[in-house]
Amino acid sequence: MTQIWQVQNNQVPERVRHTIHEFLKEMKSADREFESIKKYGQLLERFFVATPKDFEHLTSNDVIDWLNSLGDIKEATFNQYLSKFTMFFKFCEDEGYIEKVLVKKRWRAKVPKPVPKHIDPINLAKYRLTVENESLRDQAIIELLISSGARNKEICGLDIKDIDLENCKAKVLAKGNKLQTKKFSDQCRVILEKYLKVHPGNSFALFVNRNGNRITTNNVRDVVKKHWKKAELYERVYPHRFRHSFATNLLIEGKDLSAIRDALGHAFVSTTIIYTNYPSIELRKLYRKYKG
């Protein structure tokens, strides 16, 4: 039988040690992993060593003061600690050791939104070279993703009539059932011209699967990942990353927010701002790679 992790430090008051043990036992009975239980126990031990008080003398200030004393920890880590304390003190409240949970919801730190993950220009070039050896349909799908900034679902919804080869434009049904126009590259136009000559012709849909049915977002995801693997690229990839890369390229070319908003089809600049959260140093690195 797996042992329960136990507080060993005698600086922790005996009744608190016993309560932590009972709490961890309950976690084990709920089939929590040993490592997860151990992390709860270690955090509680650290806190009660620094704040060796019994429950009747413990206050919310003790908790927040200790958390603040940890210094420069990431917002996500801070929130994880808060969640662990909340779970423990809720147990203590249920058992009658304290009258109320000592953690305040307002303490939660605002976690910064992650910077959108663009694709390294060198990897993108390698990917394009690999895709050149694949079917015209797959080439067209991937080049549209790369050069137009269109969403996965928008590409799946394209009909043949939506493509304007002469002007390198495609009409897509975007979010909110709004029609938008996407521009694509000359390279994409050449591929589409070749693809349309061999299109099965039994469907209005621009892209169809082997059964002649319109492709799905899962089909596009599979196409993207299959050729990414063939290119021997190992970082995680998904269709929306091409949209991020499209926006990043516009940014490092010096396009302003309104131009990027229009190209992405966003209703508000505030939505577009997430694509411009790159530190200036990172932007300079991207620019050098982009320009070779």
Automatic annotation (TrEMBL):
This is Integrase. SUPFAM superfamilies: DNA breaking-rejoining enzymes. Keywords: Cell cycle, Cell division, Chromosome partition, Cytoplasm, DNA integration, DNA recombination, DNA-binding. InterPro entries: CB, DNA_brk_join_enz, Integrase-like_cat_sf, Integrase_catalytic, Integrase_recombinase_N, Tyrosine_recombinase_XerCD. It is found in: Cytoplasm. The lineage of its organism: Bacteria, Bacillati, Bacillota, Clostridia, Natranaerobiales. The keyword Cell cycle applies. One of its GO terms (molecular function) is DNA binding. Pfam families: Phage_integrase. It comes from the Bacteria. Residues 110-288 form the Tyr recombinase domain.
